[in-house]
Amino acid sequence: MLSFTSNYLSYCCTEVIKPRWERLEKELKELRSVEDVLMAQSRFLDDVNKDCMLTDAPLINATGDIVQLITEFALNHLMPYDKVQVKFDRLKSDLVEQMRLLGADPVTRNTAWIHFAHKILS
C-alpha cells in the first residue's frame, strides 16, 4: 500500500506536473496577452488533470477506492492485514484494468502513464 501511494505521488509530481510546469514557464515568457496566458494555464491544468487520472470517472473511482482502503487500514486496523491485502490487490487490478480500457497505450497516453501502471502492479 505504501508502494502504491509513493508511486502514484512520484508519478504525479515528477512525470506529470514538473515537465508540464516547465513547459508552462517557457510559454509564459513568450506570451503577450492575458488571453494567451489564460489559454496556456487552461492547457496546463487540463493536461495535468488528465494525466494524473483526475478526469475519467472510472479511474477516479478506482483510485479513490484504493485510497479509501489505505486510509481505513491506517486509521482503524479493523480488518486483518491479509484481508486488506486481498482487497487491495483486487482494487489495484481494477485500476489497471480501467487504465487499459481507457487507452493506456503510447499513442493515446504518455509513456510515463504506462510505466506507472506497471509500477503499481509490482
Automatic annotation (TrEMBL):
Main location: cytoplasm
The keyword Metal-binding is assigned to this record: no
Signal peptide residues on this chain, from the entry's feature table: none
Domain of life: Eukaryota
Pfam families tied to this protein: GCP_C_terminal
Keyword DNA-binding: no
Cellular component annotations (GO), alphabetically ordered: microtubule
InterPro entries recorded: GCP_C, GCP_C_sf
Domain Gamma tubulin complex component C-terminal: 1-85
Subcellular localization: Cytoplasm, Cytoskeleton
Gene Ontology molecular-function annotations: gamma-tubulin binding
Family, per entry: Belongs to the TUBGCP family.
Name of the protein this chain belongs to: Gamma tubulin complex component C-terminal domain-containing protein
Taxonomic source organism: Plectus sambesii
